Every structure is written in structure tokens, then in C-alpha cells.
Amino acid sequence: MTRFELKKIFSRRINQIVLLIIAGLTAVCIFMGLNAVSYSIPDENAEYGVRHISGRAAAMRLRADAAQYEGPLTEETLRRIIEENARLKSMPQAQSKDVADIAYENYIYCLTQGYKDIRALCAVACTGFQEYDYYALDRLKPEDADRFYTMRTQQMLEWLNLPESAKLFTQAEREFIKGRYEALEIPITYHPYMGWDAVFDKAPTLLMIMTFLLGFLLAELFACESRLKTDAIFYSSCHGRKKAVWAKVKAGLILTNVMYWGCMLVFSGVLLLILGGSGWDCPVQVTIGGWKSLYNITILQKYLLLLVCGWAGISFTALLSMLVSARTNSATLSVAVPFLLIFLPQIVSGVAGSSSAVSGLLGLLPDHLLQVSVVMNTFNLYTLGGKILAELEITPWLYLIISALLVPLVYTVYRRRNPA
Amino acid sequence: MELRLSALTKRFKDFTAVNGVSCAMSGGVYGLLGINGAGKTTLMRMLCTLIPPSEGEITLDGADIFQMGADYRRILGYLPQDFGCYPDFSAEDYLRYIASIKGLSPVVAHRRIDELLHSVGLDSARKKKTKTFSGGMKRRLGIAQAMLNDPHILILDEPTAGLDPNERVRFRNLISALAQDRLVLLSTHIVSDVEYIAGEIFLMKDGEIVHSGSVRELIADMPERVWLCTVPREQAAHLERDYKVANVRLAGGGAQLRILSAEPPFPNAEPAEATLEDVFLSYFGQTGGELE
Ligand SMILES: Nc1ncnc2c1ncn2[C@@H]1O[C@H](COP(=O)(O)OP(=O)(O)O)[C@@H](O)[C@H]1O
Ligand SMILES: [Mg+2]
What we know:
The complex is a heterodimer.
Chain A: H1 2-10, H2 13-36, E1 38-42, E2 50-54, H3 55-66, E3 71-72, H4 75-89, H5 99-112, H6 116-125, H7 136-139, H8 148-161, H9 163-166, H10 171-183, E4 189-190, H11 194-227, H12 231-235, H13 243-275, H14 299-328, H15 331-352, H16 356-363, H17 372-375, E5 381-384, E6 387-390, H18 391-415
Antiparallel strand pairs in A: 1-2, 3-4, 5-6
Chain B: E1 3-12, E2 15-25, E3 28-33, H1 40-47, E4 55-60, E5 63-64, H2 65-68, H3 70-73, E6 76-79, H4 91-101, H5 106-119, H6 135-147, E7 153-157, H7 165-178, E8 183-188, H8 191-195, E9 200-205, E10 208-213, H9 215-220, E11 225-232, H10 233-242, E12 244-251, E13 254-261, E14 270-272, H11 276-284
Parallel strand pairs in B: 3-8, 3-9, 6-7, 7-8
Antiparallel strand pairs in B: 1-2, 1-4, 4-5, 9-10, 11-13, 11-14, 12-13
Helix pairs in contact in B: 4-5, 5-6
The complex binds adenosine-5'-diphosphate and magnesium ion.
Adenosine-5'-diphosphate binds next to β2 and α1 of chain B.
């Protein structure tokens, strides 16, 4: 029966096209991920004296350049990088401004690619809290390296003591954040992580579009019987109010899971295979997007969290779409569900800013599950049974539980229908 | 086997579509005859457990069919009046799917589908998508799906609607062939659909069964008699206004009218033998011909 339910969806041309779009989308995301890794090579014949390569070749060159800085990111390593950077920057031609010198500047840039990741890290670590300054590294002196780690906690504490933070966190929550910061094992370990970076960067796009397209496919699953007037025969058949309905729910779950895991594993698998999986054991704080994070996890753990969060998010939107179409028999309404769940919260949060009450509430909405990288830098905390937990320690499980509860609900709603 | 309807009523908001229908059926072909809007489809949908009655109950050998649920539907075949097939399924795939939701094992289904496609004459179209089917083919496919589980109770809602006269005759023959050893309830607004094949006919009007019986009984119980009157043409118009007229045949300068009336409308009116058509006219005030 389940096989036929899937056939009902995919025998329709429009749905076949949707399937192709999903496959194409995955390919595009992989392509964009590969393209985002770039490496510049000095070349006298090229414009401005450099040519750029991307993809696997770039990743390999970057990795080779970075090899000398890999391992624990100690004050000693940082000092070496600061000194090396200062040495390159102070070469006489590095400061002038005509075209030939742009070429020279590019040449210098090529030499700095080995500590590209550390430069990015300094751009958030060695400036104001929640600020970004690409040139931060250039302004550091060797002795600043000693303050690298202490600054992280110190800036956070200063931020917590600002008057506008006062109303955001309780005393217990401040302690919690402080505890998390102090629990970070220092020095953190650094390995080039471009494969993971590409995955984290493109995953939200893939997930969001996939959620919409999936809603489109699922809407048809439940709404088709009344649209095609096949419901009278469906419900008057022996299993019409039990197994046949269950087959529909099962088809929906299979479709959701096969599509989600298929796309995500292919997408991340291909990127990691091509770009390499090094850096998996580094803490997320080594990445530009993770420095301030209170989640003390490794990059691999972040990847697993991303998979679970995405799974929870897409399962929830999928089941809600199924519920709406089972209840209303309207494909349009159920296509609107993922749209409302994903876009509306973003619009609302854009309008409302980050005032506590609203952002706390918004944090619980499922759109955050599709944007793990962003959420990992926020400080949304919730108290559950006296225990303080960070947003992503609650929401994926919360939504997986809600999804599990929606399954019997969808089944019951659809099996109780009386065809109009 | 006895299928019994007791004081069955279905209300939609403030409109009563079926009103206190009671009857019993055991085996053979039953005709449910009534004009559009009489409540035939609503009655049949309750018989197929698609909608619950507002009042009253339907029992099979004493057990409520809604309580029986799947056990009842296992022996039920239903051809809805207005139904769709999955447009991108082939006839064969469609029947395979319906067989699976009817709980047939794949082996049984396979054999049954072959037999049925043959008996409804869709052998050569079995691989064709149902969206390419004509109205008649779709209805034959509908019959095939209804017969898949070899139902003890077969409910056919206006099975001949929308068919051309030739197809309609073939369809009637098909139905009488399929009617062996089961209970068939066939609804129609066309007298000739049930005239020869139904053992018992229910006349349904405004949600109620106004009369029932065999064709002969219905004719015998008719409150009016049938008269043939030959009159000048000018007079025909008067008579048509004052009496129920089943038929007008023009002949020469005059007209021959078939009139339903308790008393002879005319001193020289000749009594004639009544048919089921006349019964239909008598109860519904309109003819139940095929050309409607
Ligand atoms: N779901 C419904 N809601 C409201 N009225 C309905 C519904 N179904 C049928 N009716 C009304 O009940 C009456 C009987 O309809 P139906 O059972 O289809 O008659 P028939 O099949 O004899 O033509 C019609 O007047 C129709 O408008
Ligand atoms: Mg009807």
C-alpha cells in the first residue's frame, strides 16, 4: 500500500519535477560549497598578479600552508602568527597603492593564507564583543597573544554587566554562561576545517528550500483523495479507515526521511570527501562562528547536532503539513505551513529585535532548527525543572517529541474523515 | 444475510436528505428509483459507512455496520455515482492498489484482476493510464474495483449515468451477470435500468421511500389507471394541462395521449396496460425516460 501511496505522488509530472529540483538543489549547494573554498596563487601573467583556484585543489594547498600552525592554539603559536603577519605587512611595498603594488599586496596576501583561519578567528576574538574586524590581527602585538583566551571570558562578562543585558538574564543564567565559558578547555586545538565550514555554511539554504518542496509533495499525499474524488472508494474499502490511512502516514514519513537523510548525507558526504574532514575534533570555538558560543562541543558534534536539529525541524514541518492537509484537504493550506513556520519567525524577529521576551519565544520556533550555526552564537537560555539549558539542548528533542506525537494525530484525523 | 435499515435519517444542517427510511434486503437485485435530489446517494453513502446517519441504524444480520467497521467493508463493493481514479495509474495498477486496501492477497488479487478486466472488457486497456479513459471505460473500471473482493453486498449508485444507449444496454447485461449470489442495490432515475433486472424496487422521493415492491406489485398498487385517448390536436393541449400525460403521439389530424387518471378522462378513453414508466410518472409527476 505504501508503495502505491508514493506512486500516487510521483506519478504526477509536477511532483517528478519537484524531485528533480531537490536533486538539482543539492548539487548546487555542493557546488557552492566547493566554490567557497578558494586559494590564491601568485602568477605574473594573471590580472593583479594572482590567480585563484577553488575546490579540492584549494583545500589541499590551504591545508599544506596551515600545517605549521596546526595543533593546540597556544599563546606561543599565536605570537608566531602575529609576528609573521607583522613581518609580511611591514615589507616596504606592502603599503603603497598603485596597480603594480596591488599585485604586490596580493602576493603578500598569498603568503598569509596559512593563517587565514586564525585571522578570521581574531576578527571576532580580538575586537569588541559581538563585533567583527577583519584587520584585527594586523593591529595585534606579540604580547597581546597572552590575553587571547582571558579576553574571551572578560568581554563576555563585561557584556553581561551592561545595563541592557541586565534584563535579559537572571543571576543564575549569568553564572551558567560564565560556567560554560570557563569550562572551555584551553588552548583550543586548531586544524583546517574547510570541509565542515562549507557544510555549515550551505546547509541552511538546502534545508529551507527542501522544507518547502517537501511540504509541496506531502500536501498532495493527503489532499489528493478528495481532489480526485477517490475518497469514497478509499474509505469504503476494508482497510480504508485503518491500514490504508496508516500507509499514507508511513509514505509521508518515508518520503520525509529518505529525502532529508538522502540529501543531507549526500551533500555533506560529497563536500567532506572532496574538501577533507580535518578539524572534526576541534572545538567549535576555533571557528569564526563559534568563538563566543556557550556550546562546548567539537566540530563533529556540531555536525551531528545540525543533522538532528534539521531532522527535528523538517519532521515537525512535514507532519504539520500532513496534519493540515489531512484536516482540511487543502493542498494550498498545507503548503503554506512550512512557509509560515520558516519565514514568519524571521520577519518577526527582524521587526522585534532581540528583546528578551520575544527572542526567548522565537527561539522555540522551529525555524531556528534549520540554522544551527546562527543559533549557536545566541544566548537563549531556558529553565526546565530548575535546570538551565541552552536553546539547542532543548529544541531538537522538543520537536522530535512533538513530531512523534503528531504521527498518531495525523492518522486519527485522516481516518475519521467523512468524505464530503 | 439480511441488511436492515431502521428509521434511517440523515440531516445536513436544517435539510433532511433521508427521512426515516426503513426496509430490509436479503439477496438479489434491488432498485432504488427516484429523481435527482431524492436522497439516493445520501442513503447509499450511509450504507457504505462513509457518513453516519443522524438517526436510526443499519444492521447486517443484527449487527450495526458502523460497529462492524472493516468486517462489514470486507464484504462490500461500492460504485459511487461520481468518482475518480488516480489519473496517472494504469487500469491494472489502479485495481492492484484497490485490491491492497481491500485486503486481498497479491496472488488472489492478480487472478481476480485478470478475470475482472476481461469481464468488463478492459483487457486491451489494462496498461493505459486511467486519465485517457472515456466515461464508459471509467465506469467499467469502477465496476471492476467494486467486484474485486467478490462482495456479498454490491452498491451501485447510478451506474448507467452518462453512458450512451448502447453502453447502457451492455452495462445492464454486465450487472445482471454480476448479480448472481449477492445483494445488489442499484440506484437510478431511469426506469428501464431496473425494470427487468430488479426483483424489488424502492421508489424514493424527498428522502422517503414512498412505495416498494416488485414491478408487478407496483403497477398493481398504482393509484391511477392508464388511458389512451385520441382527440383533435387543439384539445390535446387542454388535456396535457389537466392530466398527467405519459406520452403524446401525433397521428393524422389528431393526437393520441397516454393519460394517468383514476377516472376515465374522456367517455371514449380506452384503458391500457400500465408499465413501470407509468408508475414513475404517477409518483414523481415526471417521466423517468433515458433521454432526460
Ligand atoms: N453533504 C451535503 N450537505 C448538504 N446537503 C447535501 C449534502 N449531500 C447531499 N445533500 C442534499 O441532499 C439532497 C439529496 O441528495 P442526493 O442524496 O445526492 O440525491 P440523489 O442521489 O437522489 O440525487 C440534495 O438536495 C442535496 O443537495
Ligand atoms: Mg445521486
